[in-house]
Structure formats: structure tokens, C-alpha cells
Amino acid sequence: MTAPSQMSLRRIPDALSLRVRIAYAAGWDALIDTHTTQALQFVCEFAPRLPVLGALDLYFRVTAVPEAMQEAVRVGTLTALDVESLPPLTVLPSVAGWQRLRLDLLIEQLQYRRRYHQRTLALARMVGARSAEAVVATHVENAIGFARLLKGIMPVNVATDRYIREFSLPASIAEMVMQRVQARVAGEELTAQYDDPPPPIDPDELMPQATPGLDPSSNPAAPFPEPATRGF
Asked: What number is the average pLDDT over the span 3-17?
């Protein structure tokens, strides 16, 4: 994902270039805030299963955080974390003393640890899906704001596609964002069609114009000649 300062202003009017640049930066910050909020919740929820730093690393594994944002998300999460309020880390059972000589106990312990870590990863992917939904919602809000900023300059679908390209969204996410943006603005677009009525037409222009030289009043049609009667 390109940094906001490097995103394109092609086909953007000069009068809007600063506001578009600000919109890029605001969208970037909104995504960082969303990821930070989700990462903080993730770390707190997995505190009984994982240490804080391990849980944060796992969040980056199960959630698609752009590399350029990861450090900001990591810093924001750690600075907002209340370590004292975290639940204690669960201590997994271990074999000690003479039980180490029992092969069946060793195997059972290893199997339990494997199941525990597999369950942790499965839960993390579920929570990661929840985080992905929050990120998509943020993209939708960003794209709607971007489209409204460029209203009158480009249609909603074109502005949304521009946002999607500048933020380098993968195809699956881009499709969801485009569909949700269109669903959100459908009512506004239907109402806006009445804000652009067709231009008025002079009623006189709707009357048929007489062709020169064919004015029936100045050139009446001659009556058809009577057929000659031939006597026999």
C-alpha cells in the first residue's frame, strides 16, 4: 500500500488537490485506528493463552495489516495496553519427577499441548475474521467520504474504484467495498437524479417548420384534370 503522500492526484482538479490529499491521510489514519483497536482487543482476549507480544505477532499473522502500518499499529496497541488488567497466562500442565519415565504420560501431554495450540490458532483466525470485517467497514466509510468529496467530478463507482486502487485493496476486499458503497449511496443517487432536470424546450421549436417553396397557402395544389370523354 502506498503512503498517503505518494498517492496519485491524477485527474483531480487543482482546487481539490489539497482536500483529496487530506482525505488520503484521514483514510490512512482511520485504518490504523481500526487495526489498533482490533489488535488491542485481540491481545486482551488471548491473554490467558499467549503472552502479549506473542499475541500481537499472531494478530499480524491472521489479519492483513499492510506492512507500512504495522509499526504504527504495534506502537498504538502497546501504549494503550493496561497490563495490570490482563488475566494471568494459563500454565500448561507438565510432567515432572518420576512421571517423566512414563511414556504414555509424555505422549498424552504432547498431544494435549498440540491440541491447545491448534485451538489457539483456530480461535485466532475466527477473531481475525471479525477484525477483517471492521477493516472493511472502515474502507467503506473512507470510500464514501472520498466519493462525496469528488461529487460532480466523477461518478460514485469511479471515485470508489480510485480509492480501491490507491489503497491497493486485494480483489476480494475490493469487491466487498464496492458493493457496500453502492448499497449505501443508492438512495442518495436515486434522489439526486431529480437535481439534474432536462433543459427547458421552447414550445415553438416543437412545431413543424414549413419547407420553403412548399407552403400550401402560397402554392395551392391544382385540381386534377377531368379525364377526356371520347365519344363512340
From this structure: 90
Determine the Cα–Cα distance for residues 98 and 72; give it in Å rounded to an integer.
49
Q: Do 92 and 116 form a contact (C-beta atoms < 8 A)? A: yes
Q: How does the average pLDDT of the chain come out, rounded? A: 85
Q: Which residues contact 21 (CB under 8 A, 6 or more apart)?
A: 4, 5, 7, 9
Cell matching residue 57: 505477532
pLDDT in tens, 23-64: 999 999 999 999 999 999 999 999 999 999 999 999 999 999
Are 153 and 16 within 8 A, CB to CB? yes
Q: What is the pTM of this model?
A: 0.77
Q: Is residue 34 assigned to a domain?
A: yes
Q: Give the Cα-Cα-Cα angle 81, 87, 93 (nearest 5 degrees).
A: 130
- Within a domain: 122: yes
pLDDT of 215 higher than 70: no
For residue 121, give Cα distances in angstroms to 54, 107, 112, 124, 127: 12, 21, 14, 5, 10
User: Is there a domain that residue 204 lies in?
Assistant: no
Residue 168 within any structural domain of the chain: yes
